[in-house]
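Re: that backbone. Tokens:
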């Protein structure tokens, strides 16, 4: 069983993925962390030094590598991962895709604090950040909504989160 967590930056993919892997007793990976380990530098530095296009290429390659080498895992993807190279179709073929459809206000309050770790948000003031989240999440919706499972509730505990994934 492979579970792919997708959704906008700040949705909680990394936060939930780690807990989910632990609870289900299967390996957990964060795609950004795999890319960083492979490159030996942060996502910020990769964007700065190699550019977004290079990052997207590595993102796809490492998505495929970790998938092919694990029949069972939880993979927390970066927010853009499903939106490039038909990656969402690949994930749908290979496992269960779960879209964390976290409300805009929650994303905003989380991302205000974490702008510096996300290259796409660098230099945005609070107002520009809100506008960016609204526009970019609307643009990406066509990919996110192809997930097999959609989670709208951002106030769940782990057991209820798991129940939603397994339709219990
Ligand atoms: N359900 C939640 N409850 C409390 N804090 C959360 C929750 N989900 C995420 N966070 C916090 O919000 C921030 C962004 O979450 P993260 O998992 O990094 O998002 P993503 O990987 O989707 O970009 C982190 O500081 C994380 O600890
Ligand atoms: O939405 C995006 O394009 C990105 C999201 C980030 O991951 P998180 O969604 O975990 O923040 C990371 O992959 C990179 O900064 C680009
Ligand atoms: Mg993350």
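Recovered sequence:
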């Amino acid at each position: 069983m492979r579970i792919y967590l997708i959704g906008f930056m700040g949705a909680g993919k990394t936060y939930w993925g780690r807990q989910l892997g632990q609870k289900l007793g299967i390996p957990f990976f964060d795609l950004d962390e795999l890319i960083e380990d492979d490159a030996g530098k942060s996502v910020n530095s990769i964007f700065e030094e190699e550019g977004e296009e290079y990052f997207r290429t590595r993102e796809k390659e490492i998505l495929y590598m970790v998938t092919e080498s694990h029949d069972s895992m939880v993979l927390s993807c970066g927010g853009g991962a499903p939106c490039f190279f038909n990656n969402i179709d690949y994930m749908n073929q290979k496992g269960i895709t779960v879209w964390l459809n976290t409300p805009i206000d929650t994303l905003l309050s989380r991302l205000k604090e974490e702008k510096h770790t996300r290259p796409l948000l660098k230099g945005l003031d609070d107002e520009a950040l809100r506008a960016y989240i609204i526009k970019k999440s609307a643009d990406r919706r066509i990919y996110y909504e192809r997930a097999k499972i959609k989670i709208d509730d951002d106030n769940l505990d782990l057991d209820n989160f798991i129940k939603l994934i397994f339709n219990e």
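The radius of gyration is 15 Å. DSSP finds eight helices and five strands in the chain.
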